[in-house]
Amino acid sequence: MSNQLLFNDRVYEVTEDEEKVIFTDTSNEKLKINFSFSKDPVKNKIAKEGLTIFFTELFS
After folding, report:
1. Which of 15, 29, 48, 49 has a CA-to-CA distance to 37 between 20 and 30 Å?
2. Neighbouring-strand partners of residue 7
3. Could you give the 3-state DSSP secondary structure of residue 26?
């Protein structure tokens, strides 16, 4: 499955596989920002907890 998404003035190609959703920057910008999200609920929980700790420490 492949779709396009406009996010923050960048066009991303969105693809999925069994394990993750992948966002590939197809804009004309020199710096490409690609990212992905896991579909595994355990990995998502670990990432959420890590980001919560990171931003709590950063802004406290």
Report:
1. 29
2. 10
3. coil
Length of the chain: 60
For residues 1 and 18, the answer to whether their CB atoms sit within 8 Å is no
2-7 and 20-25 strand pairing? unpaired
CA distance 36 to 38: 7
Tokens of 46: 């670990």
Q: Using alpha carbons only, how large is the chain's radius of gyration in Å?
A: 14
pTM for the full predicted model: 0.72
Instruction: Name beta bridge partners: 10.
Output: 7
CA distance 37 to 21: 5
